[in-house]
């Protein structure tokens, strides 16, 4: 039986990846960090929290000694490093913590693999945020990096550390440069889930409107459940490498808002400019969306669109779900949750 460690089991991607690896017959060790109230709602929602082959391990990415401990104890075949301080906005207010967790955290694992067993395969969760200020459209594995946040810089460090350990020590260490991927399991601080949850609450009369920041930012959004399959495929490939996973389409935050309101049969009309712009219900004339500059970032990533043709060629991976379908899935799930009084 193959054994895998997935870091960050309380997060979106790790929950879906755990489900996938359990289906494939793996013994999965999901790591979580100690907090006063650890929350396993995602694996509970997937119904895998009591799976006989899912073990939970306490682990903090910044603790090198813990990396040695878990790797020695578990003796895994594969490690998927999905844990991170992953919210770009927070990385501006907690830059050093982000550098330690998101950047050095990956190096801790690589160093422990090198020392304990260089045969362990390693996956690093890299990101389109590394491209930042974009000079090439679309962005591929060969596009230069220009990170625009402490999060993006930390991920560049982790990405290059992964390649460095691959080349220096012959470790099967692969890096997936994943563009935004969303799902009903997305955290509510991220814009798509903030919108789907707010639209559900507005429909049910629990909220008046949504306040957003930069609604002109363009993102290449896919479905998280499909992206974790790409991670798995990277570690089954003939050799370690770097791969972009994306849908090869881009849409604005405003487009996503329009799609989400369409799911509840509301058409929005946009009026005003910049911070004074509002989204109004075409029928009732009620303001449902407004801009709050507190959600602006000191520097923004304006346009992301990925070229995932290498992943298709080498791994046979391709994104399938359209943004319309994904948005509908998210809004409908949030309507159901809000009706049931769920706070997740
Ligand atoms: P989430 O934010 O949902 O999950 C992050 C996980 O990391 C959580 O389990 C969190 O634990 C854990 N974590 C945070 N700090 C630490 C720490 N110090 N020690 C141990 N664990 C920690 O992220 P996603 O599932 O969305 O993303 C997975 C990975 O992929 C991340 O590395 C992210 O940066 C990267 N990525 C994500 C993309 C996306 O669009 N989703 C795109 C590209 C890359 P807790 O619950 O306790 O906070
Ligand atoms: P991102 O995701 O920064 O791309 O990082 P997020 O959903 O936070 O922002 C996307 C875009 O929406 C704009 N925006 C807002 N964002 C949030 N969170 N809240 C708002 O109210 C709001 N209004 C507008 C943002 O400015 C941005 O342009 C995600 C994370 O999952 C990272 O970990 C991952 O690496 C990248 O995707 C790829």
From TrEMBL:
<dbReference type="Pfam" id="PF16363">
    <property type="entry name" value="GDP_Man_Dehyd"/>
</dbReference>
<protein>
    <recommendedName>
        <fullName>GDP-mannose 4,6-dehydratase</fullName>
        <ecNumber>4.2.1.47</ecNumber>
    </recommendedName>
</protein>
<comment type="function">
    <text>Catalyzes the conversion of GDP-D-mannose to GDP-4-dehydro-6-deoxy-D-mannose.</text>
</comment>
<feature type="domain" description="NAD(P)-binding">
    <location>
        <begin position="5"/>
        <end position="330"/>
    </location>
</feature>
<keyword id="KW-0521">NADP</keyword>
<comment type="similarity">
    <text>Belongs to the NAD(P)-dependent epimerase/dehydratase family. GDP-mannose 4,6-dehydratase subfamily.</text>
</comment>
<dbReference type="InterPro" id="IPR006368">
    <property type="entry name" value="GDP_Man_deHydtase"/>
</dbReference>
<dbReference type="GO" id="GO:0008446">
    <property type="term" value="F:GDP-mannose 4,6-dehydratase activity"/>
</dbReference>
<keyword id="KW-0456">Lyase</keyword>
<dbReference type="InterPro" id="IPR016040">
    <property type="entry name" value="NAD(P)-bd_dom"/>
</dbReference>
<dbReference type="InterPro" id="IPR036291">
    <property type="entry name" value="NAD(P)-bd_dom_sf"/>
</dbReference>
